[in-house]
Design goal:
The protein is α/β, with parallel strands linked by helices and about 400 residues long. The chain contains 13 helices and eleven strands. The strands form two sheets. Strands 3-2-4-7-1-8-11-10-9 form a nine-stranded mixed β-sheet. Helix 2 packs across helix 13 and helix 6 packs across helix 10.
Length: about 400
Amino acid sequence: MSGCIVGWAHTPFGKHAEDDVESLIAQVAMQAVEDAGLAPEDIDEIVLGTYGENFSPQGFPASLVLQTSDAFRFKPATRVENACATGSAAIRQGLKTLAARDGRFVLVVGVEKMTGISGAEIGQTLLKASYVKEESEIEGGFAGVFGVIANQYFQRYGDQSDALAAIAAKNHANGVANPYAQMRKDLGYDFCRAVSDKNPYVAGPLKRTDCSLVSDGAAAIVLADEETAAGMGKAVRFRANVQVNDYLPLSKRDIVKFEGCSEAWSRAHAAAGTSLDDLKLVETHDCFTIAELLEYEAMGLAPQGQGATAALEGWTRKDGKLPINPSGGLKAKGHPIGATGVSMHALCAMQLTGTAGEMQIDGADLAGIFNMGGAAVANYVSILEPLK
């Protein structure tokens, strides 16, 4: 599915005590349009990605984007949701508009305000992205779901706590260079590996440093068709954009294999005419460190059960053979659910245009993105390159 990213904007992720969904949208919507060298009159459609559920008292949020400029009035605006892959789902909807030739420019905004409710309410809200009939009693909310996955993986392949700590330490080290990251602190391997008062167990073998942060934030991109984008100041092309959904219940799958993730990567490479070896960096969905480990295997970086090798031998560091999450990932950057997928695409666009600052990977000319909703239920892969 062809199309290009021609502009972007990104708030810092973290606790935005004074902001709500509406004000977070306002911080990125017009900024992304202006970054593309456009005016709001040029936008043909607006797609808003937000998980919502109990996080925000305001339902029906798509038209909130219109309040950022009177020139947006009367433009079609739709809210899209697909759990933690909501941002990528919104982007895919925008790409479909371009493919249908129903518009030349689409504004995609991803947003979430998570910190306005209690910790217990956050846990319950996130657990709605699991199969409630069978999984609602899992202790520890959504972290508990991934704790179950980690326990099963450890039972099958041995204790991988060293590898999980290496992943956490890598991502926190990378996050220092990301001006949008919620936590810009290099915690070090020893802190991530050890159980302590500041790093207690949260669910199963997962410690606090194995879990992404509760975040507020927004990101926005402007999409254009390839022909239009060719005449613009900057453009990053979708060489592939793929969605694969798997069963929602954990009981219907082998949960230590992210098979939907594998299928999405396979289809994306087939569509793009690429292989994993061609990629210069990947932004992947490390909601928990065990997820990133399983994604190494699902994308084909390491064989089943051997993802630890990639983590422990430094393959995925910024100076490794495939830098993964040079932004710090969800682990350090934060994970405002609806904003995450849009953020991943914006950050890769920065990499591919050489504007990623201290995050920049030398020679970045092909980037992969994996964003998932639930435990590898909604799986999205994009492969991006600069438009020549």
